[in-house]
């Protein structure tokens, strides 16, 4: 029986829109290959009210991989209607993962089209326009996301949910060692406060390497990374546990700061 991409995608989309969860896709609708999984994910573009804002990379750190129990990175689409400005307040309703992830974000100046041979890091960075700061707030449509598996997570848009995009970084960043760049985050709520540190090297060794990984992952499956799109490269620290009433602030030093709040 032919794999029914649309039917499986309908189940995941309905769960996302209603805030419900599923144990998993029916056996005959579970993607077995990354090709099938990305094909299911791609149906999001037709459902979205606007063209995709870009891409996210899930599980680029050991902490991120452990959080959803996968062996390596996964790509997902950033939906434009789920992008928010620095300082925004997001709802915690239906957010079962309840974490915020502090990330480096690249804005593409030139499109990168699929080709047979992999793109080098230098080629990828030559297509980047600007650096931004971001906070991703993932979520899952699976009741037990630690056992959903990589293919179902890809189909489920790599745990995409909400995303905060900060201002464009004005400080010179191309010559900086982003792998060694230190990031400090503070979470403050009604009756608690904690801090956490991170570094760019937690993102596949370097956020630039993560971006190159995404470019080549998309190229394998015939997908163009388009000019004007953003790529958020994954959490540079252990995901921040959040709850209603929390304010999150991430300090990237000379590169800037970004923050958001969480309420019901």
Structure description:
This protein is of the alpha+beta class and 264 residues long. The protein has one domain: Alpha-Beta Complex (Fumarylacetoacetate hydrolase, domain 2), CATH 3.90.850.10. It has seven helices and 13 strands. The strands form two sheets. Strands 1, 2, 3, 5, 6, 7, 10 and 11 form an eight-stranded mixed β-sheet that branches. A five-stranded mixed β-sheet has the order 4-13-12-8-9, with no helix packed on it. The termini are far apart. The model has no long low-confidence stretch (mean pLDDT 95).
Features:
single chain; 264 residues; alpha+beta; Fumarylacetoacetate hydrolase, domain 2; eight-stranded mixed sheet; five-stranded mixed sheet; globular
Tell me the major beta sheet.
Answer: 8 strands, mixed
Order of helices and strands: HHHEHEEEEHEHEEEHEEEE
Characterize the overall form. Answer: globular
Q: From the helix content, strand content and strand pairing, which structural class follows?
A: alpha+beta
Sheet-strand content, in percent, reads: 25-35%
**How many domains make up the 3D coordinates?**
1
Any idea what the CATH superfamily is called?
A: Fumarylacetoacetase-like, C-terminal domain
Query: Which second-level CATH architecture applies?
Result: Alpha-Beta Complex
What would the CATH topology be? Answer: Fumarylacetoacetate hydrolase, domain 2
Percent range of helical residues:
10-25%
Number of strands: 13
Distance between the termini: 44 Å
In angstroms, what is the radius of gyration? 17 Å
Give the low-confidence spans: none
Roughly what is the average pLDDT, rounded to an integer? 95
Enumerate how many helices there are, as a single number: 7
Q: Which CATH top level class fits?
A: Alpha Beta
């Amino acid at each position: 029986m032919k794999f029914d991409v649309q039917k499986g995608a309908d189940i995941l989309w309905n769960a996302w829109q209603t805030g419900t969860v599923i144990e998993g896709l029916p056996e005959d609708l579970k993607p077995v290959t990354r090709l099938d999984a990305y094909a299911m994910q791609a149906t999001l573009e037709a459902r979205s009210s606007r063209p995709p804002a870009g891409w996210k990379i899930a599980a680029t750190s050991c902490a991120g991989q452990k959080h959803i129990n996968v062996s390596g990175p996964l790509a997902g689409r950033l939906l434009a209607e789920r992008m928010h400005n620095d300082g925004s307040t997001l709802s915690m309703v239906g957010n079962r993962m309840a974490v915020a992830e502090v990330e480096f974000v690249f804005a593409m100046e030139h499109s990168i089209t699929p080709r047979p041979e992999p793109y080098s890091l230098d080629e990828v960075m030559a297509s980047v326009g600007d650096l931004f700061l971001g906070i991703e707030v993932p979520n899952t449509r699976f009741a037990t996301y630690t056992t959903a598996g990589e293919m179902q997570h890809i189909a489920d848009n790599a745990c995409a949910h909400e995303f905060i995009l900060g201002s464009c970084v004005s400080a010179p960043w191309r010559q900086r060692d982003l792998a060694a760049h230190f990031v400090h985050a503070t979470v403050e709520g009604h009756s608690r406060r904690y801090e956490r540190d991170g570094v760019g090297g937690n993102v596949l060794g370097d956020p630039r390497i993560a971006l190159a990984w995404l470019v080549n992952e998309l190229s394998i499956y015939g997908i163009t990374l388009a000019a004007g799109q953003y790529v958020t490269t994954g959490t540079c620290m252990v995901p921040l546990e959040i709850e209603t009433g929390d304010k999150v602030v991430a300090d990237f030093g000379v590169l800037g700061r970004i923050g958001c709040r969480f309420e019901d």
